Amino acid sequence: MLSPDKVVHLQEIGVLQEKVLAYMRRFWPAMQPYKTMLDKMLFEAGDEIPQYVFYICPICTNEFIYIQHNAAFGSCEFSCDHFPPKNVKGSTQALVCKSCNNKAGHEFDYVTKDFLVERALNMRIPGTVIATKVQIKDVKGWYHSEMTIDENGELMFSFLPDKNKKAVPLQAFMEKRLYKKDWTADITIPRTKLAKAEKAFIKSAYLTCFDQFGYDFIYSETGRHLRNVMEGKETYPYKNIPAFIFDDPEKMQLIPGTICRITHPQEWNVFAVAIPMADQHYSCLATVLIPGPDDWNQLTLLNELIDTEVDRQVSFTAIPPVMPKMP
Ligand SMILES: [Zn+2]
């Protein structure tokens, strides 16, 4: 039987029970091919195996929720995780263990917003704001400053965006109109932590595949490699994450589904997972390339095959989801 010290009552799990049950009902059929594995995980040899329903955290594949005779248990707390992250207006959710949810949130999910803002800044999208730091020669201290793109696409710099903030030396500099003379300043513009952004993209693509293909994806070779990438145990072999970014509405239509096979060029032999992201002033569809279930080496080959500088014809064909929609 389940070890009593490993389980907590479902009531203690921080998600609405109905929501948990809906998730479990949706994914339980997809767990059936793995039932022998689950039986071994849950019961001792020789135990009489009762009827049960089981959901396993798709990210760590260790923590679980389990229902037997209408009693529900979890190996830890579970919560709903947004993919892509909420900070880029992600609206799809997956039920994951709280530890995986918190870990991704602290370690890398927060960077997706920086990625979007930096892109909008480079494209001079009006309304874009990026937090910077400024240090002016002969003025004591450094200050939170801001760069914005105005309605004409011009770059504006604000030394003291928060007027209520106390910054005596800087305010003195402004009041004495010292900026009328020659002056120099160091401005620090934070760059997106790309290694973290890559993990966030991989996680969104991974959970999208789980949402559409269920546990067959999780237990595939590709699923295992992607978990290793998220845990930092291996690097993603293809150098461009995300691979393609579409922000022109006309070009967005080239992507006919959430998961597509790239049908041309055929030799790329890969799937594109579309990740919709939005900020206040900018939205796009970013794609992560995922190989077939046992085709991980294809990602290495792609480095030779795809030159993103070349504007070539790429065709996408939508792959219908295997999993039923959420009721
Ligand atoms: Zn987990």
Characterization of this structure:
This protein is an alpha+beta fold and 327 residues long. 31% of the residues lie in helices and 24% in strands. It binds zinc ion (ZN). Zinc ion binds next to strand 6 and helix 3. The site of zinc ion has 8 residues, from strand 6 and helix 3.
Roughly how many Å apart are the termini? Answer: 32 Å
Q: Secondary-structure element order, as H and E? A: EHHEEEEEHHEEEHEHHHEHEEEHE
* Number of structurally distinct domains: 3
- Helix and strand content put the structural class at alpha+beta
Radius of gyration, in Å, reads 24 Å
Q: Major beta sheet, specifics?
A: 5 strands, antiparallel
Q: Judging from the principal axes of the Cα atoms, what is the shape?
A: globular
Give the cofactors and ligands: zinc ion
Q: Beta-sheet strand percentage?
A: 15-25%
Strand order within the widest beta sheet? 11-14-13-12-15
Q: How many alpha or pi helices?
A: 10
DSSP summary, beta strand count? 15
**What is the typical, i.e. mean, pLDDT?**
90
- Uncertain segments are none
Q: What is the share of helical residues? A: 25-40%
Write the topology of this structure:
Elements: E1 8-9, H1 17-31, H2 35-42, E2 52-56, E3 64-68, E4 71-74, E5 78-83, E6 92-97, H3 98-109, H4 111-122, E7 129-136, E8 143-149, E9 155-158, H5 168-175, E10 185-188, H6 194-213, H7 215-218, H8 221-230, E11 245-246, H9 249-252, E12 259-264, E13 271-278, E14 283-290, H10 298-305, E15 315-318
Antiparallel strand pairs: 1-4, 2-3, 3-4, 5-6, 7-8, 7-10, 8-9, 11-14, 12-13, 12-15, 13-14
Helix pairs in contact: 3-6, 4-6, 6-8
The structure holds zinc ion.
Residues 57, 59-60, 63, 96-97, 99-100 line the site of zinc ion (ZN).
